[in-house]
Amino acid sequence: MLKAIFFGFHGVIINDDAIHPQLISQLLLAENLRFDPDEYQERYLGRSDRARLTSILQTRGRFVQDDYLDGLLRKKAAGYSEWLRSQPKLALYPGLDDLLYQIRSRHYITAIVTGAQRADVEEVLATAKLTDQFSLVVSASDMPVAASKPAPDSYLAAIDQLNLLNPELVLTPQNCLAIEACFAGIEAAKAANVPVVGVAQIYPYHMIQRCATWAVDYLNEIDFDWIAPRYEQGSNAATMEEKPAV
After folding, report:
1. What pTM was computed for the model?
2. Among candidate residues 27, 59, 86, the one where a domain is terminated
3. 3-state secondary structure of 80
4. Does residue 159 share a domain with residue 127?
5. Is residue 244's pLDDT more than 60?
6. Angle at 221 between CA 136 and CA 84, to 5 degrees
7. How many C-beta atoms lie closer than 10 Å to residue 69's C-beta?
8. Cα 65 to Cα 218: distance, rounded to the nearest angstrom
């Protein structure tokens, strides 16, 4: 039985992918280091800021202490907050409100499982008045670098924490559904044995389809009338293409 829905954040809830490489590029420039956009796209999309910066700096011969890295992360968070405040309208993905309505009507538990910093997530949710839509946030601020997506740790932590908050759930990975847009997030969910809908909001559909349990182009194509029975049947091997035309 489907009981809980886990959302990624960047690329799923908010369309902010362009600002992150800009902010990291600014941090590297201040360190007299070069930013490589192709490297970022291939290796770091979907990973936490701490994991990204640690790896980027190490590949350039910089091995920094945690307190120094914390300072860089604070600068990036400040830049992200400034960017948010400068936006005339928050760039939430279309279909999010309707999807959350579907979830509420079915009484599923919701959580955000993300490589974003907690401050970023909380500011976006507060600005969008969505804070009360999610029972839990597991962020990069809560996990060590080694547990960053694509490792499954953040998903497993979310399940454990929801079971502590709601012991009657008896939640297992097979009762959960992840919604992800990045390969690292999809890999993390699958490594935790959580079925995942990949949303083609960052990568093309055909690329998402290859690695997700199910794939859609947009959030408003996620249909729980079709997905929920797959959990009752105990099968997660179907694809969205098997959904009959309506």
Report:
1. 0.89
2. 86
3. helix
4. yes
5. no
6. 50
7. 16
8. 41
> Residue 239 pLDDT more than 80?
no
Instruction: Burial-class residue 143 by CB neighbours within 10 Å (0-12, 13-18, 19+).
Output: buried
Residue 245 has pLDDT above 70, yes or no: no
| Chosen domain end from 60, 86, 112 | 86
The two beta strands, 136-138 and 4-7, are unpaired
**Mean of the per-residue pLDDT values of the chain:** 91
Answer yes or no: do 40 and 125 share one domain. Answer: no
Tell me how far CA of residue 152 lies from CA of 21, 143, 173, 240, 242, in angstroms.
Answer: 24, 11, 11, 24, 28
Q: How far is CA 135 from CA 61, 66, 113, 159, in A?
A: 41, 30, 11, 12
Rounded Cα distance, 163 and 82, in Å: 36
Q: What is the pLDDT of residue 85?
A: 93
Q: What pLDDT shows up at residue 42?
A: 83
Q: What is the pLDDT of residue 104?
A: 95
- Taken as a whole, the chain contains a residue count of 246
Mean pLDDT on 127-136: 96
Distance of CA 89 to the CA centre of its chain: 21
pLDDT value at residue 175? 95
Helix/strand/coil for 1:
coil
Tell me the average pLDDT across 154-167.
96
- Has residue 246 been placed in a domain? no
Helices (DSSP H) in the chain: which residue ranges? 19-30, 37-39, 49-59, 66-86, 96-105, 118-127, 153-165, 183-191, 205-211, 224-232
Question: Which of 19, 30, 82 minimizes the C-alpha distance to 57?
Answer: 30
Domain assignment present for residue 141? The answer is yes
